[in-house]
Every structure is written in structure tokens, then in C-alpha cells.
Amino acid sequence: MFYNVKVLFFVIVYLMSMLLYYFISKQFALAGIMLGFILGSLVVFGVIVVSCFIVSLILSLLVKYSYLACCRIFKMEKAGFSAFSKNFWIIFTGLIYLIILIVFLKVTEY
Amino acid sequence: MFSRMSDKNLIYSIVITACFIFASAGIYIARNLGYSKDVILQKAGGYYADKRYFMAVRYFSKAVDLNASSAGLYRNYGISLLRVGNYNLAVKYFKLAVGLDPVDSDNYYYIGDALYREASASNNREKFLQAVRYLEKAINLDQYSEKSYLLIGLCFRSCGLQENARMFYKKALLSKNFSTAGFYNLIGNTFREEGRYKEALSYYEKAKENDNSFVAAYCSIGDMYLKLNNHAEALLNYRKAIKIDGYFIIPHISLANSYYDRNNFSEAAECCLKALKINPDSDKANYILGMSYKALGRKKECVEYLKKAAFCGSDDAVGELRNIGIDLR
What we know:
The structure holds two protein chains of two kinds. Chain A is mostly helical.
């Protein structure tokens, strides 16, 4: 499973959020808007984690119930799909990395 | 946690993360190498021309990072910074523009402007005087720079140095390059700020003689007659101002105020209604109208207009509503 030491994963995501916040605040500082670095990076971290959590939850539920529906329609045996939390975690971590990459590319684009 | 560091899943996760970070860094570096200074400058110029100053600042900043440098670039960057409110950095770039083009009076004017705005925001007398020094240089380089005379006057007046402001306004008058009536009016304003109403009146009269369609002069003359307790002359001048320009709200409000002070509430109300046709969101007009209706015993209309005045920003209206027993919170 990806990042089975969850605390380490969140620490790394927070460090990436700090980097994202550095690029965002560099541009707001030009407009004279200065926020605390720790507070700002916490806000970025919070927004990314919460939004990805919600989306991952929805996607995991969709995947689970689609699979169950397909099993019923095609009269297949439900095999190896009991680990809802594992699938949720994989989607969650992948989505966070994707969002961080997209935001990073957008903020550094000219 | 540390006993599981040899866990294969954890190792794979860290390797994936490291690859992700290196890929992002690689894309960032490759992009930066690909940016053309001229394209960035062109985009910055486009945003600047469209008055999208936040984006202009962003692109000018990038252009400067890419080692672009010219007096025009620094001046436009400084102006964009001025518009978004970053006065300190604006001054820095205007000074760089001065370094590259020391004979352009506009650069000195903009430094003065940035310092003046910063001083106004923080009420810093020292910054006002710094602004004056740069504006003097602007005037020395370009005697036709009316905006420099106007701003230097504002700086002195903000410090309470009305005499110095007058000196520059009189210099502007002597140069005969600018609106005589306008500068007489400004000199009148400096006397008004010092409470020297007779001298102020004489200069407002000169402004009126120079340009008998100068509405502000009539309003100012009216105000001075009020201060000198000559209500008849005051009303006469307000009415003249209205005759010249019926869409200028100030004489309507001044007239309403005069009538209200003399307990002529129905006339005051009429003047306020005319003023509100010009600008329905005038806090003063709404307030005086509300108070006039209060004096006339029309409570419903009184509350209606006082509420409007409060929403338009009148603190007096808020206080008056609280006295009536209406709390807007």
C-alpha cells in the first residue's frame, strides 16, 4: 500500500504545501499582501487535504458500488474487494499528488 | 514508525515521491529556461495597457528576474506597484528608472506620488517632506508639470505647512502655464484650512473673476460667507453655483445645510430632494433630509432617510437613529 506510514505522508504533503505557498505568496507580496508563512502553508495544506478527501470518498464509493452492480448484473462472484479503506487511501494519495502538481504548474506558469 | 522503514511499500512510496519531486523540478527548470524576456515584457505591457495591474506586476517581476532593464520598464513596473498599493517597492523601481533616465521629470513625480500615498496611509510627516524633495526636482526639470505643483501643494498642506503650499501655487500662477482660477482657488483653500476666512474669500473671489463659470469658487465663496455670518451672500452664491451647473451636488447640499441651520426645514428638504436626484447615495443629503423631516414631525420619512444615510456611511445618522431607538446592528 502506498505510504503505509501515514504520518510521514502528511508531513511530506505539508512540506509540498509550504513550497506551493512560497510561490503563491511571492506574487501576493508584490501586491503588498503579506500573510504569515506558517499560517498560509497550513491553509494550503488544509484546503488540499480536505478537498481531496471529499473527492476520494466520492470516487471510492462510486467504484465500490459500480463494481457491486457489475457483479450482480453479470452474476460474478465478488472477489477481493473488501478493502474499501485501502482503495480509498490509494485514490486519496494519488489525488493529492495530482492536485499539488497541477497547482504547482499553474502558479509557476507565465 | 521507524522499525518499519525497511518495509517495501514504504520504500516504493518514497521512491515515487522522489521521482514526483524531481519531475516537477525538471518541468519548472525547463519552463524557466524556455521563457523569452521579450514575450514576458510584451505580456506585461499588455496587462499594463489594460489596467490589469496585479497581472502586470506579476509579469514585470518575471521580466526583471530575466534581467530585463530599461527606464520605461522600471517606470511602468513602479506605476503598476503603485496601483496595487505596494508603495515601498514602487519607490524602489522609480528610483531605478531615475538612475537610468535622470532628466525625465515624470520619474521624480512618481516617486513623490508613491511617497505621498504612503505618507497619507500612515500619516507620516517625514514621508510627506521626502515627497516634497522629489516633487521639487520634478518641477525644476519641467516647469510645465502642473500635477507636480498640485501634489507638492497637497504634501505641504498635509503637514500643516500652508504657507509653503501657497508659495508653490503662486509660483505656478507666475509661470502663467496653468489655470489661474484653479490655483487662486487652491490658495483660497490653504487660507481656509488655517481659519483665515477673509483672505480665503478674497482668493475665491479672484478665482471667480478669472473664470465666472468656475462652480467650485462660488461654493467656496458661499462657505466663507457662512463662516463670516453673512447668510444672505452665502445663499446667493450657492444659487449662482446651481445656476451655472445644476448637476453639481455640493451647492444643493450647502444650501440645504444653510436652510436647516436657520430652521427653514421645508426649504432644506426641498434642496435635499434635488440633491438626491443627482446622487441618491449622498450620505449628507440623506442625513439633512432625515433631520429636516424629524424637525417637521414626519417620523416615517425621517427614519427612512436616516437609514439611507447610515448605509451610505454617515456616522451622525447612526447616532441619530440610536437616539430614536433604532439599532442597525
